[in-house]
Specification:
The chain is an alpha+beta fold and about 750 residues long. It is built from 13 helices and 47 strands. Strand 4 and strand 5 (about 270-280) form a beta hairpin. The protein starts with about 25 loop residues before the first helix and ends with a strand.
Length: about 750
């Protein structure tokens, strides 16, 4: 057994050189999953913590009793069942790799161990390899071998890890470029050296086929040239010369072509190009493509002025919905080609799109109109230099447009139809500026109403009269918005889903409109012309609730007592007394009214009392409700006295009832009847009668017998036995309007 790497280590020819490349398809995916789990190398996923691996003569795990177990697919499946859900994707991928190549896992592990050892500060100590999980008996040999192995740069390491992917997918040209970055001859890696030879042989074969195809094209044999370029593309699927030649030679109408009748359409998206393929209408594929898969390769072809054509692959593969080129070269002309693939290799001529200037237009172009105004907004592609806007009206181009990023405003326009065109501008490769086709939008400027500038209201008894200025050519409506009204000047367009509020439904009365009592309404003016309207100013109108159950009663001494039903949701009630052109006002709160009542000073002449609930708002036009005034006639009083009868010797004659009428003005035509009632005590002290039925009626005096300044005297009947109490009452029509002035109660007791 040799001591230096390069000798046979382990069984004969078990390891003749450390790998410089994993040479495993999809290695970058393995590495990403491994790093996501926080593993140093794939060996950490294969063995339990604390156990070691042998790697020089195969991939083995130390088992019980120092027995070594080979790590194969069965072992990987068992480890996957023990490791848990997080490790299963990585172990499943490693199992797939192992099944495809039994030596692949060992190659990957050695590649990763060498990288770790070379990057370690103590890379020359066997203990470093032991710390990485390598069996101590193999640690020294591995460390010595890693020390003399080529140290790859970051670029070389990426080339080593991606080489097999490029080879496996037929990208021979790229594989050749990656191989040129690695040490010549594989740096002692025999497998890598053989891969270098395979790549070189395939590239040389493709070059020979290309030369023959080009010669056939020069000689005019298009069919032989196309067959040759197809063969070259299969040998090297990323060969730009072969694919460009196929695009150049392809004719959709060629009989037997896989692309016969198929059409590839390219259209702009915002900052991208969308591709859609309409397949051939032929229901049956050609025999050579009967078993072809729907896998395709999409490429973008560009040609800079005076330069070579460029070709770039667009990710996407097979798609029934099409593909999207998310990074097209702005300001350049491009063509797209879709190649059919079989087993990852070009399997027929392409379907080619027309030439497209990559100059996307703006998107989401939208517009608004107003009185003599057009507003527009759009979304610009991020790669555009700027936009050029043209607005054509009935009389030609419109000047003075205010254009700002993503929007414009044009004012002072006449009524009519306008066409708005927005072009995006891009910088081309030769430093010139190119424009997009442009996006058009037809916009109609309609007539708008003149807004209402001012709204006034004059309140009357039970009604309010509105006046306004402005709105000369409009249907001015007084409305109440269900929510907050729009600001004055707000432009509105009719929308059936959100209709404007209906005009006020208040009853029309002489001199204005009658708001409902108890209402507080924000009334706004709305100028309407056809489908357009402009919101106008508004004001608050309040009609406090009516005060019901009002009664006014004179109580003497120039005072009157007012009673009423307190209106709901009212804090104060105002009483206004009007007489002879003068008025006085009194306010009372609910608590004071309940506790003390409401008394006011009144004249003896006729007067009017108007009660109104105090408004709830401070800035409203207050409309007193109708019918809230109570007329009180002049003070009319009837007084009565019991006058002792004249003396006749030692005795007095019968007592007299003296009834007098007092009136501040002319007495009414009809006065109530005066009734004198007596109530006896029945052996007890007599009690004053409560009403005209509470006792015995002694006298009745018709109101027609009374006149101001002329008292009437009647003898009081003496049929009752004393003691008893007399009391007078007023009965009949007008009794409530006549005040009864009663004498002192003791003078009415007869003993």
């Amino acid at each position: 057994m040799g001591l230096e790497f390069g000798h046979d280590l382990g069984p004969r020819r078990a390891l003749r050189g450390l790998p410089l490349s994993p040479l495993v398809t999809g290695y970058r995916h393995v590495l990403a999953q491994q790093q996501a789990l926080g593993l140093r190398h794939i060996g950490d996923a294969l063995v339990e913590r604390g156990r070691v691996l042998r790697v020089l003569d195969g991939l083995f795990e130390e088992g019980a009793g120092r027995r070594w177990q080979h790590i194969g697919p069965d072992r990987l499946r068992r480890v996957g069942a023990l490791r848990g859900e997080a490790y299963r994707p990585l172990l499943a991928r490693l199992e797939t790799v192992q099944l495809q190549d039994p030596a692949a896992l060992r190659r990957i592990l050695l590649y990763q161990l060498v990288e770790l050892l070379q990057a370690h500060p103590r890379h020359s100590e066997p203990g470093t390899a032991v710390s990485l999980g390598v069996c101590p008996t193999e640690a020294a040999a591995l460390v010595r071998a890693a020390a003399v192995c080529h140290r790859l740069t970051g670029e070389q390491r990426r080339a080593a890890e991606e080489l097999e992917d490029s080879w496996d997918t037929g990208r021979v040209r790229r594989a050749a470029r990656l191989a040129s970055l690695l040490p010549a001859g594989g740096g002692g890696d025999a497998l890598l050296r053989r891969r270098f030879a395979d790549i070189a042989a395939r590239a040389a074969e493709a070059d020979v086929v290309l030369e023959a195809a080009q010669e056939a094209e020069r000689s005019g044999d298009a069919r032989a040239a196309e067959d040759g370029f197809l063969k070259a593309a299969r040998l090297a699927s990323d060969c730009p010369r072969a694919r460009l030649a196929l695009v150049r030679l392809h004719r959709p109408a060629v009989e037997g072509s896989a692309g016969t009748g198929a059409v590839l359409t390219a259209r702009h998206l915002l900052d991208a190009v969308a591709l859609s393929l309409r397949p051939s209408p032929s229901p049956s594929p050609s025999p050579s493509h009967a078993d072809a898969t729907p896998e395709r390769q999409i490429v973008r072809l560009t040609r800079a002025p005076g330069g070579p054509a460029g070709i770039a692959e667009i990710p996407g593969g097979s798609s029934a919905a099409g593909w999207v080129d998310r990074d097209p070269p702005l300001g350049q002309e491009v063509r797209y080609a879709v190649f059919p693939l079989r087993e990852g290799l070009v399997d027929g001529p392409p379907v080619v799109s027309d030439v497209l200037l990559v100059a996307p237009d703006v998107s989401a172009l939208r517009s608004t109109t107003g009185p003599g105004r057009i507003g527009a907004a759009w979304t610009e592609p991020s790669g555009a230099l700027d936009v050029r806007v043209v607005l054509d009206g009935p009389d030609g181009p419109v000047d003075g447009i205010e254009v700002r990023p993503g929007a414009l405003t044009a004012t002072g326009l006449d009524v009519g139809t306008y066409v708005l065109r927005v072009h995006c501008r891009y910088r081309s490769p030769d430093a010139t500026v190119v424009e997009s086709t442009g996006t058009d939008r037809h916009i109609t400027v309609s007539p708008w109403p003149t807004p209402v500038h001012r709204l006034d209201a004059t309140a009357g008894r039970g009604s309010v009269r509105f006046t306004w200025s402005g709105g000369q050519d409009a249907d001015v409506r007084l409305v109440s918005w269900p929510a907050d009204p729009p600001e004055p000047g707000t432009e509105l367009t009719h929308d059936p889903a959100v209709p404007w509020p209906a005009p006020l439904s208040w009853e029309a009365v002489a001199g204005g409109l009658a708001p409902p009592p108890g209402s507080v309404t924000r009334v706004s003016a709305l100028a309407v012309l056809g489908p357009h309207a402009v919101a106008g100013p508004g004001l608050l109108v309040e009609c406090p609730p009516a005060v019901a159950g009002v009664r006014v009663e004179r109580v003497g001494g120039g005072r009157a007592r007012i009673t009423f039903d307190w209106p709901a949701e009212t804090g104060q009630v105002a009483a206004t007394v009007e007489r002879d052109g003068a008025s006085s006002s009194h306010r009372v709160t609910r608590s004071t009214y309940v506790r003390e009542g409401l008394y006011v000073d009144v004249p003896s002449s006729a007067f009017t009392v108007a009660l109104s609930a105090a408004p709830r708002t401070t800035d409203a036009v207050v409309v007193p409700p109708p019918g809230s005034a109570t007329a009180v006639p002049a003070d009319i009083s009837v007084s009565y006295r019991i006058v002792p009868g004249p003396r006749r010797g030692l005795r007095r004659g019968p007592a007299l009832l003296r009834v007098a009428l007092s009136c501040a003005g002319e007495a009414p035509d009809r006065l109530p009847e005066f009734v004198l009632v007596a109530r006896a005590g029945g052996g007890r002290a007599p009690v004053r009668p409560l009403d005209h039925t509470d006792g015995t009626t002694l006298l009745r005096l018709d109101g027609c017998a009374l006149s101001a300044g002329r008292p009437v005297e009647l003898p009081v009947p003496t049929d009752l036995r004393p003691p008893y109490v007399l009391r007078g009452f007023l009965l009949g029509d007008g009794a409530a309007d006549v005040r009864l002035d009663e004498p002192s109660p003791p003078t009415l007791v007869v003993r």
